[in-house]
Amino acid sequence: MSEVTNELMRTIGGLAKNPNFYLMVGPRHDSRRSHHRGQARLMRLLDKYDGLSVGEIAEILDVRPSSVTGLVDKLADNGLVDRIPDERDKRITLIKLTKKGHDFLQSKKDEADDLSEEVFAGLTDEEQATLLHLLKRVSKNLSDMDFGDYISQMVNDSIGRHFRFDDGDIHINL
């Protein structure tokens, strides 16, 4: 590795370890977050396809219908979704975002937009586009890599520190 690629790896690793970066892109379990991750997924789904049945939601999210019912109950209790009888089939209840639900999602989108603007404020539009292009290429390189040999070597190195294999015999290194 060249010194530049080493520095790139350290910098990317530093980003991943930076608590502010992690708070920005990682899972949010802090007290400011008032809605469970599953509820947020459901709300985003309803924002895209408003008016889905519990069965449709369960199938799309790949969860049990009873789990969806629990999420819908919590969102309905907070006034974020409504249950509406299907006009074509009264046996089916559709779940729709309320105005409050749409407003809540929009406020979260606005917060995310503000945060991303602040994080990248020191970069020109051209620099942002270049950074995005380069990070996508690095991400593709990582996706295309086969880490099997690398992991095998790590395991072998670790085992080799503790054991030695000679002519079919195993010797413990102390």
TrEMBL record:
SUPFAM superfamilies noted in UniProt = Winged helix' DNA-binding domain
| Coiled-coil zones | none
Q: Which PROSITE patterns match?
A: HTH_MARR_1 (PS01117), HTH_MARR_2 (PS50995)
Which species does this protein come from?
Oenococcus kitaharae DSM 17330
What's one Pfam family here?
MarR
What region holds the HTH marR-type domain? 5-140
- GO biological process: what's one of them? response to stress
Q: Is DNA-binding found in the keyword set?
A: yes
Q: Print the keywords alphabetically.
A: DNA-binding, Transcription, Transcription regulation
Q: Which GO terms describe its molecular function?
A: DNA binding; DNA-binding transcription factor activity; transition metal ion binding
User: What name does this protein carry?
Assistant: Transcriptional regulator
Task: Write down the InterPro entries for this protein, in alphabetical order.
Answer: ArsR-like_HTH, HTH_MarR-typ, Iron_dep_repressor, MarR/SlyA-like, Tscrpt_reg_MarR-type_CS, WH-like_DNA-bd_sf, WH_DNA-bd_sf
